[in-house]
Write a structure and sequence with these properties.
Strand content: 5-15%
Strand order of the largest sheet: 2-1-6-5-4-3
Number of strands: 6
Distance between the termini: 48 Å
Radius of gyration: 18 Å
Structural class: alpha+beta
Number of helices: 10
Helix content: 40-55%
Number of domains: 2
Order of helices and strands: HHHEEHEHEEEHHHHH
Shape: globular
C-alpha cells in the first residue's frame, strides 16, 4: 500500500480555492489555473471546468451557517461523512469529495476521479442531512495531530529508531512537504488554517519518507495511526478557511 493517497488529496487546496472564488477573493482565471495545477485539465459532464464553476456558483448558499464548501476525506479507521449506500458514497474514490451547501439544506456532492490526463467530476445531490463531521477547531485538530505524532515518535525511538538509508532523510521530508503544498493557497487563508495544513504536510511527508522512500515498515502500526489525524487536520483547516471567507463576505 502506498502512503500518499492516505495522507494527501488535491481536494484540500481545491476546496479552499473554490471557497475563495465563491466569496470573490480570487478571480476565475487564477482559480482555474490553480485547479489545473492540482490535477491537470478538468471535465464535468464532458464539458470544461467553467461549467462546473457555474453550477457551483448557482447552487452555493454563501450565507449558510455551516461551511459552504466542506472537504470529505476517508480511509482506514475513518469513514466518509456521506450517507451509506448513497450514489455519492458508491462513486467515492480515495481522493474524497467536496460537499457544497445549497439552499434549503440540499447537499451538492462533487466527486472527482484523478487520472494521468486530468480530473473528471461527478455531481450528486442529497436532500437528507449527512453524517456530522467532527467539527474540530484548528487548535483541537492541531493538538490531536501533534500529540499523535509525538506518541509515534516516542514508540519508534524506544524501538531503536528507523534506518537512515537515504543520504539526507530530513531533506527528503522537506522536499515532499513542498510537494504537498503545491500550488499553494489562495489569498486570505487564515494563519490558523495555513499552520494546520503545514503541520499536516510535514507529518505526511515524514510518514511517506519512512515507509515508501526508506522502505522501512517496522513502524507501520505507529505511522498508520497518524493517517486519521492528518486527514482530520486537513478537513478542519478547510472548514476554518471557508468560514473566515464567509465572515469577511458578510461583513463587507
Amino acid at each position: 500500500m502506498r502512503t500518499r493517497p492516505e495522507v494527501y488529496s488535491p481536494l484540500q487546496n481545491t476546496g479552499v480555492w473554490l471557497a475563495a472564488w465563491l466569496y470573490n477573493v480570487e478571480s476565475t482565471d487564477d482559480t482555474v489555473q490553480a485547479l489545473t495545477d492540482l490535477g491537470g485539465p478538468h471535465s464535468y459532464q464532458g464539458l470544461p471546468m467553467a461549467h462546473l464553476l457555474a453550477d457551483v456558483r448557482s447552487e452555493a448558499d454563501l450565507e449558510a451557517p455551516e461551511p459552504v464548501i466542506r472537504l470529505v476525506l476517508w480511509g482506514p479507521g475513518q469513514a466518509a461523512t456521506l450517507r451509506a449506500g448513497s450514489p455519492a458514497m458508491e462513486a467515492l474514490t480515495p481522493a474524497g469529495a467536496l460537499v457544497v451547501r445549497g439552499a434549503s439544506g440540499v447537499n451538492h456532492i462533487l466527486v472527482p476521479t484523478y487520472r494521468e490526463r486530468g480530473v473528471t467530476w461527478r455531481w450528486f445531490e442529497d436532500s437528507e442531512r449527512l453524517p456530522e463531521p467532527e467539527w474540530l477547531t484548528p487548535g483541537e485538530a492541531d493538538a490531536l495531530l501533534s500529540r499523535a505524532t509525538n506518541e509515534a515518535a516516542v514508540l519508534i525511538e524506544a524501538a531503536g529508531g528507523t534506518r537512515a538509508e537515504l543520504p539526507n532523510p530530513r531533506l527528503a521530508v522537506g522536499t515532499l512537504a513542498d510537494f504537498y503544498d503545491t500550488p499553494g493557497l489562495p489569498a486570505g487563508v487564515t494563519p490558523r488554517a495555513a499552520k494546520l495544513f503545514a503541520r499536516a504536510d510535514v507529518v505526511a511527508a515524514t510518514v511517506e519518507t519512512v515507509t515508501d522512500r526508506l522502505g522501512d515498515h517496522s513502524f507501520d502500526p505507529q505511522l498508520f495511526g497518524l493517517w486519521r489525524h492528518i486527514r482530520t487536520a486537513r478537513m478542519a483547516g478547510v472548514a476554518d478557511a471557508v468560514m473566515d471567507y464567509r465572515r469577511e463576505y458578510l461583513a463587507s
